[in-house]
Every structure is written in C-alpha cells, then in structure tokens.
Amino acid sequence: MSVIIKNDAFVTAEVMTLVTRERERALSVREWKHRLAGYGYSVRDTESGHVLETLPHHVEVCTLPAELCA
C-alpha cells in the first residue's frame, strides 16, 4: 500500500466507499476499527470529530461523518 501524500478526491471517494462498506458489515465500532486496521487505516478521535488516517504513518485522509462513528 502506498502512502497518501496529496489528498485526491477520487482516492478519498474510494476510501470512503471502503469505510462505509466495512461499517455496514461490522457489528460494533470496535470491530469496525479493527477491520479498518486490516486495510491499513485507523480512526483518530479529535475535538473536531473523527479523522481517518493511514497506518503506520498517520497521514490524514479525510474527516468521517458522525453517523459512521456512532
């Protein structure tokens, strides 16, 4: 997997499709985060919301909608 350095709208859309699909399959938020880690992503909780980032470099990909993280 390559490191995302420059946020591209197409790449972000594809990643959001993956994140949404995995959230629909997961039974809990904890399982969802574990499934995302298998794809090389993590969810970081910040004061302004939840941020999706890459592992292990912690490069921010996008901000997640609140309904995904509930």
SSE order and pairing:
Elements (H helix, E strand, L loop, with lengths): L8 H17 L3 H11 L1 E6 L2 E6 L5 E5 L6
Antiparallel strand pairs: 1-2, 2-3
Helix pairs in contact: 1-2
Taken together, the total number of domains comes to: 1
Average of per-residue pLDDT values: 87
Task: Give the CA-based shape.
Answer: globular
Secondary-structure element sequence?
A: HHEEE
How is the largest sheet built, in terms of strand order? 1-2-3
Number of helices: 2
Estimate percent helicity. Answer: 40-55%
Polypeptide structure, described:
The chain contains two helices and three strands. With 70 residues, it is α+β, with helices and mostly antiparallel strands. It has one domain (9-64). It has a three-stranded antiparallel β-sheet. Helix 1 (9-25) crosses helix 2. The chain is globular and about 30 Å long. The mean pLDDT is 87.
Summarize the structure.
By secondary structure, this protein is an alpha+beta fold. The chain has 2 helices and 3 strands; from the N terminus they run ααβββ.
Features:
70 residues; alpha+beta; 40% helix
